[in-house]
Design goal:
mainly beta, 36 strands, globular, five-stranded mixed sheet, Maltoporin, Chain A
């Protein structure tokens, strides 16, 4: 049930939704959107749609944004997105944890060109291993979308699209920076009128820094050394127009590398190798659009060192074989129906867990099938917009789940839409949850969420607004129970929050302001007192504020970013929780266009060199300087 104390924020949103259209009608500075301002996205409803016509909270990071921000890793791109909270286990080469709207780290579905990626054993994907050079754009859909995408999409869906250049276009860049950082990227488009391909090659390395924090009373830095990383990746994306109605497109990607870290026991470096491919056929005729795709993702990691030889280390490897088919029929301009089926096989047969005595233990089950079907309808009439989606997932070894998404919106005027969304999501247990040698629990069921959201979206030629209030109740959360030395569905959480994203352009300046206020409550029962804990969930910051401003003058481009993170709580095993201070990080950058092809860039991250800490026991990188030379022939 929706909580009574949420009424005030909801009322405020409704009031603002009527204030903004009035302002739009009275102000000469705000103009209606033109066709050139439309952004087409596909992640919200699995087919192409104007972002202003969707009833979901969506943000898009374009290639232009990437060039301006000059990120070292994908986490640099996501850190200023409202509703996303990223916790670092050190710098860019270390693992990082993403909390979308306060949900767990494995509650965000990550896709690359439609391919579900990540580990079926751990249930998460290391964002740091995704090379920025291969990214064309990122679509972030916040809020549950399990009714369309299935398991994991409790907090949201993030889809990364790889580079696409026209035939004859190319891009080359070299970067150097602090801590021995270097990066080289090459992208090129080739083919003919019918066939287009884009190839991207990327190499990156850093000497790193000592990520372990020995100033914490509860920890001891047993390895006071630099923790660096090295990565090599390659990708090809292409499409072939078979006819006016049919098209074939494909993507192949492989990346491998090594990262070092500190560890009191076990390995202190990891070798990883990942690859994915997707071949998709699309047929479009009259009101019909149909697609069929075959895809696979492999995620392998081996942790060794610190006394453990690579040949004696545990191997975690997931192979995810996927087949997807969908069809959409457009009855009229305002009414459409989408239906599809998904087939997923998770395979961990090549994984092996090495125990303390050196023996290798395999998982009790090494393969799992998930069969899914969904149907989604959309309509628009007299200012009303509606979306209704239902999905059924049959996960082998786990109770089947039905999910839904119901949204109703009203266009107050052509620029402003108010919508109310209600949805159910789920997260299936991982192989580690169910079958990890000695600790798995085969009786586990899926985690379940129910989310309610009130959303206001406004868009004018030079201004855009996204305002959201949501409440997400998650039950049957999987947590470790010391009473049985295993995981059980014993936890629950209630997460509510407010988000604001406002962007506007004025002359040579572009501004973006983002704010989020989160109330993530642990509603689990305390084993000692028998009472509801009602404490803030660990590692989630309550407030996030971000302001970005870009200015273009002649051949110069200037960029500034201010990211404020509020207090959060964390704890180290065996010690009470501790409160981590809030902090402000300032990043600045400048670019200079030498001529039509050449440009140079300089960026300084964390200008004030804040001694901030997002996780107990780990240092952050601090101030970093990066210089880039880039050649573009388009």
């Amino acid at each position: 049930m929706y909580r009574s104390h949420s009424i005030k924020p909801l009322a405020s949103l409704l009031a603002l939704s009527f204030i903004f259209p009035s302002y739009a009608q009275q102000s000469d500075a705000i103009e209606q959107p033109s066709d050139s301002d439309k952004t087409i996205i596909v992640t919200a409803n699995r087919t192409e749609q104007n972002i202003n016509d969707t009833l979901a909270a969506i943000e898009v990071i374009t290639r232009q944004d990437i060039e301006r921000i000059q990120p070292e890793s994908i986490t640099d791109l996501l850190q200023s997105i409202a509703g996303l909270d990223i916790v670092y286990n050190g710098g860019a080469g270390q693992s990082s944890t993403l909390f979308t709207r306060g949900t767990n780290s494995d509650h965000t579905l990550l896709l690359i060109d439609g391919v579900r990626i990540g580990s079926a054993t751990l249930g998460v994907k290391n964002f740091s291993s995704i090379p920025v050079a291969q990214i064309e754009r990122i679509e972030i859909v916040k809020g549950p979308r399990a009714a369309l995408w299935g398991s994991d999409a409790i907090g949201g869906v993030i889809q990364i699209f790889t580079r696409r250049l026209e035939n004859g276009e190319s891009s080359t860049s070299l970067s150097f920076g602090s801590e021995g950082y270097s990066n080289a990227n090459v992208s090129a488009g080739f083919g003919n009128k019918a066939i287009k391909n884009t190839v991207t090659l990327s190499y990156e390395k850093s000497d790193g820094f000592d990520v372990f924090d020995d100033s914490t009373d509860t920890t001891e830095d047993t390895q006071p050394d630099e923790d660096g990383y090295e990565r090599l990746s390659a990708a090809i994306r292409g499409d072939y127009s078979l006819s006016d109605e049919t098209q074939l497109d494909w993507v192949f990607q492989v990346d491998s590398g090594n990262s070092e870290y500190d560890s009191s026991f076990g390995g202190d470096e990891t070798d990883y190798t990942n690859h994915l491919w997707n071949i998709r056929y699309t047929y479009t005729v009259d009101q019909w659009v149909s697609q069929f795709s075959v895809k696979q993702n492999r995620d392998q990691s081996i942790s060794f060192g610190n006394g453990t030889a690579k040949s004696d280390a545990s191997v975690f490897e997931t192979r995810r074989r996927q087949i997807n088919a969908l069809a959409k029929y457009q009855f009229t301009n305002d009414v459409s129906l989408l239906a599809g089926v998904d087939h997923l096989i998770d395979d961990v047969e090549r994984s092996g867990v090495v125990s303390f005595d050196g023996s290798v233990n395999d998982y009790a089950e090494v393969e799992r099938a998930t069969e899914s079907a969904y149907v989604s309808g959309q309509f628009a009439a007299s200012g009303l917009i509606g979306e209704l989606t239902a999905r059924y997932d049959d996960v082998e070894g786990v109770k089947s789940d039905g999910t839904f998404n119901a949204s109703i919106g009203y266009k107050i005027n052509p620029s402003v839409t108010v919508s109310l969304n209600r949805s159910k999501g789920f997260k299936a247990p991982t192989f580690n949850d169910l079958y990890f040698p000695g600790f798995g629990n085969e009786l586990l069921q899926s985690e379940i969420s129910y989310n309610t959201e009130l959303l206001v979206k406004a868009n004018w030629k030079k201004h855009s607004l996204l305002l959201s209030h949501y409440d997400n109740n998650i039950d049957q959360l999987i947590a470790y129970n010391p009473a049985c030395f295993c995981s059980e569905n014993i936890d629950s959480a209630d997460i509510s929050g407010l988000e604001l994203v406002y962007q506007f352009r004025h002359d040579s300046f572009s501004h973006k302001f983002s704010a989020s206020n989160l109330d993530p409550k642990d509603k689990s029962i305390d084993a000692d007192t028998g009472l509801v804990k009602n404490t803030r969930l660990l590692r989630r910051a309550k407030e996030h504020y971000s302001y970005e401003v870009t200015a273009d003058f002649a051949n110069f481009n200037l960029f500034s970013q201010f990211n404020y993170t509020g207090t959060r709580f964390d704890e180290v095993f065996g010690s009470p929780r501790q409160k981590l201070d809030s902090h402000l990080v300032i990043n600045i950058g400048v670019g200079y266009q030498v001529n039509d092809q050449w440009n140079v860039k300089l960026k300084v991250n964390d200008v004030t060199d804040e001694d901030d800490q997002s996780l107990l026991g780990y240092n952050n990188l601090g101030q970093q300087v990066m210089f880039t030379v880039q050649y573009l022939n388009f």
